[in-house]
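Page header: ASSEMBLY MODEL / two components / 675 residues total.
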Amino acid sequence: MDVSIRSVSKEFDGYPALHDVSLDIRSGELIALLGPSGSGKTTLLRLIAGLERPTAGAIFFGDEDASHRTVQERNVGFVFQHYALFRHMTVAENIGFGLKVRPAANRPSKREIRRRASELLDLVQLSGLEDRYPSQLSGGQRQRVALARALAIEPRVLLLDEPFGALDAQVRRELRRWLREIHDRTGHTTVFVTHDQEEALELADRVVVMSRGRIEQVGSADDVYDRPNSPFVFGFIGDSSVLPVRVENGKLWLQDRFIGIEVRDVPDGPASLYFRPHDVELLDGGGGCIAGTVTASRRVAGTRRVELEVGGARERVEIELPVDHPEAANSRISFRPRRWKLFPASGGTAALSATDDGSAGKADEAELMLAASL
Amino acid sequence: MSVDTLTGMPRPAAARPAAAHSFRRPTTEGPLAKAILITIALGFLALFLVLPLIAVFIEAFRKGAGEFLAALGEPDTLAAIRLTLTVAAIAVPLNLVFGVAAAWAIAKFEFKGKAFLTTLIDLPFSVSPVISGLVYVLLFGTGSVLGTWLKAHGIEILFAVPGIVLATVFVTFPFVARELIPLMQDQGTGDEEAALSLGASGWQTFRYVTLPNIKWGLLYGVLLCNARAMGEFGAVSVVSGHIRGLTNTMPLHVEILYNEYNFVAAFAVSTLLASLALVTLVFKSFLEYRYGDEIAATAKH
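Prediction written out in full:
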């Protein structure tokens, strides 16, 4: 089932939660709504479900305008962060609930409901737990039951609100793989909300990055990581370091020092240089690089994270080096980002162009992304 | 012996007392403080609860079981018992419905004046029962417009059963609501949303999800409400008119008998009221014992 969100806004008591959001979800897609808390991702999910009503705009299920349909009529499967299992019902009764409450005309027999529940329990790999109560299950098991319950009504869309948010890291990873498998097998159009970027990038076909009630970027994991279109996305997805720089005649300056990066078609003025801490090359010093004093060096898993103070204003940046890199022990390090992206200093919403492949600067092996307009 | 190790008996006998003595959990008190606190609590209970209760039963049976039964068999007493049961049978279901509705509104919805409604629900607790009764006298008395109009249409409120029911409903209406509001607020709307998203109608959601979630709180509230409805004195006394055999409830009847120096009868009726309290208590404890796990699961989960 295609889902189309058209210019949807939502206000709560005058406080805006979503501003004019549009999004097309293709049938069978697995979509992640990713953003920090307060970004409106859960609100968007609840609007699709019909648990909230949009202040403006429309939501289409296929060709049908579902905006004014009730949550019951929309036939969506909704999985809640805290499971919301009915605690006084057994697992089988929970899963069968959606079938039991159907009008008599298309309600399956008790036996059929029970059979469906067992079938779904097999699907979520909890066979044989029909007669347990939710309180007798672990968190991961409960969430599987919640998913089975949502699938039982043969939903047109499956919506999951931070489904793994209340689970510990180990179980999260396990369930992530498992959810992907279930999705591949059942083919439901699925939207899930998460604030965990790893989860979103690993699981989803497309990631919708949201911030402050707006969609910042929609794209594959590669798109949002390699080609972020705003400072927010760059900062939110993956690690990032920022330096305030100045553009002068197509060259980037950090205070009084040319840092060896040249850009084209960028007006003079202040700008922010974004790069990934691990995507840097170390240099011997001299001109055309960023040089800094090491203030801290921490071992993080497979790499060493080095914090540098750069330039007269002592801007702090982080870079990552291989653990056994000889330079890591030095007190001064010079480097240049291999890939980077320049945003106007206002950090703003100006339109930003993507790739410019090449001739700018010495870092010609790198894919350069620059801001075209300020 | 291996049994000793299994039961946790100390192997080096000298080591344990020293260890036990040197460490006390920070949140526990010393033995002296413990003893004092327990004595105060138990002493208070004995003096103010157990002793009067025993006194009631002793007084009732002072002249033997025959006299006791005869006192209960009096037509006026039977009428009082009947009236009390009738009033409770009307007031408790009314407050059950009202309590669930009020708790539902307060716990599940956001609306203007919610804080005010919460305060209003508590009003009968903070107002003296005599005032609660007096309100109805002013409202339905012969001097009032409403009272005159009703009188003209042959409807008696004051000094009749309807007045007693109204006063009882007023005094007991916070019990169910107060029990349910914190419970329902704590449970939130997640389960209801889940049920609705699965296609359940509003009524099905209430019947299959909300009601089972609150049933223990509801039962508890009803028990308290019932105990109070049968035992209410002040408000009922103001509106009843104390007509023997007609508008006398059990508590009022106790007072009349007592004032007539008919101690055996007074205490006999009192034993019934006291028994009601005991039965309520036992019933509640039994429920907690029998369904304790489920109650705990419902409360926490």
